[in-house]
Amino acid sequence: MMAARTLANTHASPIASHIAQLLSTASAITSCLQTLNPQNPNPTSPTSTSPLSQFAPFLSPNLVIEVIKNQKNPNHGLFFFNWASNLNPNPNNYFHSHLCYVAITDLLLSHGLLSTASSLLESHGRLSDFSVAKFIKAYGDRGNIREAIHWFHRAKNMESGRCLFSCNAILGVLVKGNRIMLARAIFDQILKEGLVKPDVYTYTTMIRGYCKMGMIENAKNVFDEMGCKPNLITCNTMINGFGKKGLMESAMKIVDQMMETEDCMPDTVTYTTLIDGYCKRGELDEAMKCMDEMVSRNCEPNVLTYNAIIYGLCLNGNIDEAKKMMTRMRLNGLKDDVATHTCILKGFCVVGKLDDAARHLKEMVGLGMKPDAKAYGVVVNEFCKMGKADDAISLLKEMKGRGINPSVSSFNAVFRILVESGKPDRAALLLKRMKQLGCSPNCLSYSTVIDGLCRAKGRMHEVEEFVEEMRQNGNLLDASMYSWLVKGYCEDGNTDMAVRVFHEMLDMGYVINLESFLAFVKELLSKEKIFEVEKLFEEMSRRCPGIDIYKYRRILDEHQQSTRVQEGRLGCNATDGRGYGG
Fold it and tell me: Can you tell me the mean pLDDT for 40-48?
């Protein structure tokens, strides 16, 4: 029998022998499951003749958990779980433990089978605050915040409000989704109801959420009012928030508090965060002091620590010192990575050594490294700053050839320089090829190119194609783009389309800018549409009460007057001509 062969005795220690037997049996069960049909995950009448029946005498919670974790196909895991739930016969009176339910729930949720997992737990009466928290997180990971909130309220009703796991889960989902105000409302409600005592995870989540949104004062208030002792993660989160705001004095106060405790001493993350903050403020001396202190406290710098120092040195143009730090990093047994060399690239660009940056990028490839979109982006952006659009485009193509998708910001930098240098045709061509090069355009991509085409006469048909494509991709026109369209149609002499776009932008609640309004007025008056331009002005005044209407009125009055003067001169010339001839 397979089970008998699997459970052969060994001469190892009892614990090692037990583990070896468990793993071997789990492997044998997994092999057996591969021969079964997983599409029938709920066998209604498992019998002793089942291929799995030979394993019944050896079942234990640990074995069941190991088998479930081994399954790549969730239906195999569910088949086995249900078989073990209905053993007949059941020689050892086996039943699933809490951790068995956790294992099968994790397997199903990891494969997106949320409804299946929910039905399983409900049918076994195993829904709890702990398990619901898993569903909240799963829905949050899928971006379904509405359903995550629904499950949170379900947990509250089920546990009479005493659901700490679900509270922490929903706060985590909302913070991840940048819904900090909703997280704040739930957090405040938790404190007000008093049914659940927030733990350190609750407070840390709120602090992280506020720091993420730049609301550092709110984060500090939560930190100061914690109803429990902050842990290392809490303190590091607060320090990181201060560091991102450049408030290093406040960050150091947290460090001083940590020093007063024995169970929350600063670690590598703490010091690295401080070093990063000081480097971004240009205070390299303070950053080096932090590094010296962490070493003196037997806190080993890691790759991120060295990269933070190297980045600071490069921002200040100290390329040689940055390279020395990279050598020190290697001597301490750490391997420089793509991020390290991206800092060096940035340093070359800061001191204006673009050729050295381009050379270093090639050397990275020669060393067997795989520069990412960020590394290439540094050089692409610098090429654009120097007006070298061709070199920038060559790098974008090189990236595609190496299987790297360029960032949209790199493309936008190229679009900007092409349009500014009077090459909207090339910008339009690159925009059309953008997806082929591994990147989808965003609103800024379209707006930059459309702006350039609108300024070039006779290109409005191509503009219309981009506007349609932009809308199909879910991007909406803003006030600037509407203004460019109006001006572009006016310069092409297409008054009807200019008026149509003008009405559309009013419908969207946008106001035309003064430059485009001037072109609009000139075009309408040149077509002797004085009454129409007055009517459009009155409509704009009525529907957009917040604008500085006097500036628009001044443009209209000045050009109406200019038009009347020109008409008067033409009339005089005509009269003089007729009189002279007479």
Answer: 47
